[in-house]
Amino acid sequence: MVKAKRGPRKKTQGRTPNRKVTDYYPVRRSSRKSKSELEVVILIDYIDGKGRGVIATKHFNRGEFVVEYHGDLIEITDAKKREAVYAQDPSTGCYMYYFQYLSKTYCVDATKETNRLGRLINHSKCGNCQTKLHDIDGVPHLILIASRDIKAGEELLYDYGDRSKASIEAHPWLKH
């Protein structure tokens, strides 16, 4: 067995140099952006005759993800109880979206004020967005996608789908 000869160790400021894997392999830098660097693609604005609404600040192509309608995912029995509570205080509002998923009726209750803006998108029979269910690990997520190209500065709208006589009498804007 032959031993390799080593020369005298070089001291660097009282410590020995330490090699790292990154000395041999390139480091992949994260492309994540901080909150302050994120692009704002939608914002809240006041819409005459409607109150708050959401405006696109960038162009969206048809079929492109716009925003998630986010809130508590609950089953219909709990949703009906909450809806009855909300009906007692008209100043609360009601931002509940009912849908079928795997033969069951669910609701996304977005009534609670948050910084999520999907709940503030207004109604139009001829909206520029449409809802779509997206399954993530067996949990349904309600998203809005562009149903046509949307220009920056346009109000985001989708059809709530409620055509009941009682709803239209209570909310005449559902007719349009």
Automatic annotation (TrEMBL):
Pfam family name, one: SET
This protein's name: [histone H4]-lysine(20) N-methyltransferase
Domain SET: 36-161
Top-level taxon of origin: Eukaryota
Ranges annotated as biased composition (Basic residues): 1-13
Entry's EC annotation: 2.1.1.361
Keywords: Cell cycle, Cell division, Chromatin regulator, Chromosome, Methyltransferase, Mitosis, Nucleus, Repressor, S-adenosyl-L-methionine, Transcription, Transcription regulation, Transferase
Subcellular location, record wording: Chromosome; Nucleus
InterPro entries: KMT5A, KMT5A-like, KMT5A-like_SET, SET_dom, SET_dom_sf
Region spans: Disordered: 1-21
GO biological process: cell division; methylation; regulation of DNA damage response, signal transduction by p53 class mediator; regulation of transcription by RNA polymerase II
Record field: catalytic activity: L-lysyl(20)-[histone H4] + S-adenosyl-L-methionine = N(6)-methyl-L-lysyl(20)-[histone H4] + S-adenosyl-L-homocysteine + H(+); L-lysyl-[protein] + S-adenosyl-L-methionine = N(6)-methyl-L-lysyl-[protein] + S-adenosyl-L-homocysteine + H(+)
One example GO MF annotation: histone H4K20 monomethyltransferase activity
Any one Gene Ontology cellular component term annotated for this protein: nucleus
Position of the signal peptide: none
